[in-house]
Please model this.
Amino acid sequence: MNQYLDVNPEVAQAIAQGRPVVALESTIISHGMPYPQNVETALAVEKIIREAGAVPATIAILGGRLKAGLTAEEIEYLGKQGQKVTKASRRDLSALVARGADGATTVTTTMMIAHMAGIKIFATGGIGGVHRGAETTMDISADLEELGQTDVMVVCAGAKAILDLPLTLEYLETHGVPVLGYQTEELPAFYTRTSGLSVDYRVDTPQELAQILKTHHQLGLKGGILVTNPIPAEYSMDAAEINAVIDQAIAEANQLGIHGKETTPFLLAKVKEITGGDSLQANIRLVFNNARLAAQTAVAYSEL
Ligand code: PSU
Ligand code: MN
Model:
């Protein structure tokens, strides 16, 4: 066990007994949503996972410790701290841990810590990807590299159109990451169920997802599996409307010279501001939907 890792006792016991566990990220809490909706959502997501028969493990860095499984107080603390907490990607880990600092884990670091702890399935909202204009900015999320090398199944609602979705799929293909569509042939685009782009395989049940993950392990393959789960139809947004908002947000980011790790949080906050909260509701609902599917898949995996 990694000397800097603290697995919460309930999570450790479930892992040791082969019971279902689902990892959750914390950047979505600190940087992805405003307080108090972020804390309410994080706690509600944990509840959904429990109701589906799995143990939730929200992941973060607290006081230089890599935490797999947070208390409600720790979730409240991260939510209140918000943007003051460092958004921690792979490149931040050594310095934050050495300094005994806090960090909110992105998809990248949540995958890393989940893997250290022995957790196989992780639910989130959207992953990072290749940004529009990456051919000149080289802004490509570390999430894609991590998916290429760390063996965790990530359940998301696709990726936002703040990214270049065709290039994101190309990158995943190059790194050997299977992109599965849950009950769909099309890559979902976070706020909308469709993108006009195809996933690699359509999968219709949690049992089949679990079987693919099991086979991935038996084959000894490195790298993750990306499950893309469309937002429920009743919460999905109008594509033309949301894409116009995203275009406006990107234009503002470019004007202000936003770059590096600030880009994604800036765009997410801008979209929320312009849509007056509608996008926040959609965001919350799709995270719930992903948590449920991840928990069902973890349960199915434990029964194989
Ligand atoms: N996309 C979203 N919501 C999020 C993020 C991305 O729709 O909350 C967060 C996740 O933590 C993701 C990170 O791992 O942003 C990616 O940041 P970057 O693009 O800087 O790699
Ligand atoms: Mn980036």
User: Anything to note?
Assistant: Residues 139, 141, 263 surround manganese (II) ion (ligand 2) (CB under 6 Å). The chain is about 50% helix and 15% strand.
